[in-house]
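Could someone model magnesium ion with this protein?
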Amino acid sequence: MQTLNSPANFDKTITNQAVISVKNLNHYFGKGSLKKQALFDINLDINSGEIVIMTGPSGSGKTTLLTMLGGLRSAQEGSLNILGEEIRGASKNQLTKLRKQIGYIFQAHNLMTFLTAKQNVRMSLELHKEMLNQNMDALSISMLEAVGLGDRVNYYPENLSGGQKQRVAIARALVSRPKIVLADEPTAALDKQSGRDVVEIMQKLAKEQGCTILLVTHDNRILDIADRIIYMEDGRLVTNLADRAISH
Ligand code: ADP
Ligand code: MG
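Reply:
Sure, complex below.
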């Protein structure tokens, strides 16, 4: 595990090394006669440092795929290699380890209402053994400064705007410098300007940290931050149809 500020964390280039590699992935919900296929033969490679946007209609399987890539749902059929490890058939332990290396940002910020902005960010550092001897308060504050909330460090979520709460969620996801950030419609609840701000902050921090982002969105106004756009329809991935995604 890399420590903070090690030079490798500042690699700004996209490499040819896949940090996410999905092959012939199928996924089903339900059992017996209620069994319904949600993902069909997904094939996808995402390289280190890439920012990929996934778009497509509601119900097409985007969240299902994202949660599988993040080890939040186990894979049934096919191959799912994340950060060099096959996670189909992975043990609970392996999945827990994997989850610590991934930053998650959801549509609803999911902040703890009884913790301040700083405490929310700090909580994600506390999951990492190697962080315990670092100044976690200082790291949390500097990440909040990086998302423009240096003057809101001790605020509780109820006293922050929607955009500010989502920026705390970004700080929380990025403070431990994860290799991969998975974001599911992070701007859905935000007005146009806050949405734009939020993704630009994600983009900037990700490029600085050399991390890979997969972001699901319906928001056409943010597609330009992507290195690549992929499109999901009826559980199938149609890659590199940027034109189609934009007109959708
Ligand atoms: P999207 O994120 O693109 O809107 P989802 O991945 O949430 O789509 O859903 C894809 C399909 O899988 C939908 O038909 C949805 O109803 C179904 N689905 C999602 N989650 C579950 C679940 N936990 N149980 C059963 N069906 C589900
Ligand atoms: Mg969804």
